Amino acid sequence: MTLQSAPASPQPARARTDSGAPDAPRRRLRFPSAFTVLFVVTVAVWALTFVIPAGRYDSKDGSPVPGTYHSVELTTGFWERLKDLFLAPVNGLYGVTDAGTGLTAPGGTGSFAGAAGVFLFILAVGAFITVTMRTGALTTGVARLAQRLHHRRTLLLVVLLTVFSLGGTTYGMAEETLGFYGLMIPLMLSLGYDRMVAATVVMVGAGVGTLASTVNPFATGVASDSAGIGTGDGIVLRLVMWACLTALAAAYVVRYARRVTEDPSRSLTPLTEDDLRIKAEGGEAAKLTSRQRTVLYLFATTFLFMIFAVVPWSDLHVTFLPTLGWYFPELAALFIVAAVAVGLVGGLGEKGTVNAVTAGAGDFIGAALIVMLARGVTVIMNNASVTDTILDVLQSAVADTSSGVFAVLMFAVNLPLAFFVPSSSGHAALAMPILAPLADFAGVSRALVVTAYQSASGWVNLVTPTSAVVMGGLALAKIRYDRYLRFMAPLMGALLVAVAGFLALGAAVR
Predict the structure, then answer these.
(1) What three-state secondary structure class fits 497?
(2) What pLDDT, on the 0 to 100 scale, is given for residue 285?
């Protein structure tokens, strides 16, 4: 969902100079949005295609064959390539690659190269999540869970952080977390904790879950599609990562929470008079209605079935479960049907359900458009035959590394990309077409490159100031960014070491 802007607040009077004229307002420098970054990248990549030599690998079963890179001569002139730049977003959505020429254009004949399937899937997930949120089932469910565990503080922290982590690993819970700060802050204050505990239970929980995404459609799904593999490929390693990293994050937050209760002077966000008032006011959570309980069952069942449908059970030697092999078309249909079912069961009615579905699709259109724009960059590179040239350079750089070092290098390469493109889906669509084939040269699975990318994206997005989720959450929790960084620094270091270890392990057990 998109972050809504706050209501306008009264503007302070401007300082006046000696002449009585008001000073000019200071302009705040802001980092450009992912759309602006991708626009600049698109134009820059297009310009570089006139400098980078054209070349191709021979391919076998969709993978480049090592040692077969060779130069090619382009048949397209300047005006055709200018047209590619103009049509890049369209090609990114529904371009078709001609089997004879290898060029991608809309309305052609050949293999589909656009991201239309991913585009529709993102809108369907957005509709499903928004419909569920509008029933009030998720918010009330978390509140009831907190009330039941109110007298078991440590267990409550672990359970709540795990719940938010589940949201992150399954559907990339991000902007949705902003609605929970109003619930978590009074709850944690009433338990004797501070605002840092309240904020990090939500932010770190969802963030670590996204870092260790298992079937997150915006990270794992888009990256797997761009890498040419199934979403379920590599899920075993990601499940182990999710369990271990969630436990690590929970232990870190619990350690800080205990330290604060034992010695309040060690708090990074000392209690204010307002906090003491909120702490004294603590109220009762509303009861879950039968409709809301059913909605929660449907919500959980939908994601569980998605996991079942995308996992290649036969590759895992699980013979008693059928491998459905579902992909984006089937999954999009699943979430559309589930959204309608949740709306009707949740009591939204026909009109309310339709409004929620359209509003949810609208909230997620930004993520879908970013995937489209990033895929357009890939089309420009492929039409100019420079993708394989870049791949050949990168392959030479990692040729003599072990599989474990290669996996860690893939993580490191994605860190700066994650900062400049904080959208996980945009990052995936931009980087995976180039990075994923490197796995073929290194003798590791492409799923490991996907895991390395999403780990880097999730790690950076835990603290990056370019993220509306981080800065918006801190604003709602009234926590200074520098104090949040002080809290996060040791955890970021521990996560960095843990992720590197898991990636090396994943490469070793291939």
Answers:
(1) helix
(2) 64
Spatial neighbors of 115 by CB under 8 A, at least 6 apart, are 92, 93, 225, 371, 372, 375, 429
Asked whether the predicted pLDDT for residue 343 surpasses 70, the reply is yes
With residues binned 3-state (H G I as helix, E B as strand, rest as coil), the percentages for the chain, rounded to 5, are 65, 5, 30
Task: Indicate the burial class of 374 (C-beta count within 10 angstroms; 0-12, 13-18, 19 or more).
Answer: buried
417: phi > 0 → left, psi -120 to 50 → alpha, else beta; which? alpha
Cβ atoms of 148 and 299 closer than 8 Å = no
Q: Determine the pLDDT at residue 298.
A: 94
C-alpha to C-alpha distance for 114 and 90, rounded to whole angstroms:
8
Contacts of 264 (CB under 8 A, 6+ apart): 194, 270, 271
Query: In angstroms, rounded to a whole number, what is the distance separating the alpha carbons of residues 302 and 310?
Result: 12
Nearest CA to 46 out of 461, 384, 489 is that of 384
Does 340 score more than 60 pLDDT? yes
**How far apart are the C-alpha atoms of 137 and 141, rounded to whole Å?**
6
Decide: 367 and 425 in contact? Cβ < 8 Å: yes
Q: Does the pLDDT of residue 457 top 90, yes or no?
A: yes
- Token duo for residue 41: 């990248």
Please state the φ and ψ torsions of residue 25, each to the nearest 5 degrees: -65, 140
Mean per-residue pLDDT, 286-311: 88
CB 416 within 8 A of CB 508: no
Mean pLDDT computed over 72-86? 88
CB-CB neighbours of 509 under 10 Å: 8
φ, ψ of residue 56 to 5 degrees: the values are -145, 155
Return the percentage of the chain with pLDDT > 90, whole number: 35
**Contact present, 111 and 122 (Cβ < 8 Å):** no
Residue 355's φ and ψ, nearest 5 degrees, are -60, -40
What's the rounded Cα separation, in Å, for the pair 508 and 506? 5
Q: CA–CA separation, 182 vs 202, rounded Å?
A: 11
Compute φ and ψ for 110, nearest 5 degrees: 150, -145
Q: What per-residue confidence (pLDDT) applies to 4?
A: 37
Q: What is the mean pLDDT of residues 130-140?
A: 87
- pLDDT tens digits along 374-432: 888 888 988 888 888 887 887 777 777 888 899 999 999 898 888 777 778 878 888 88
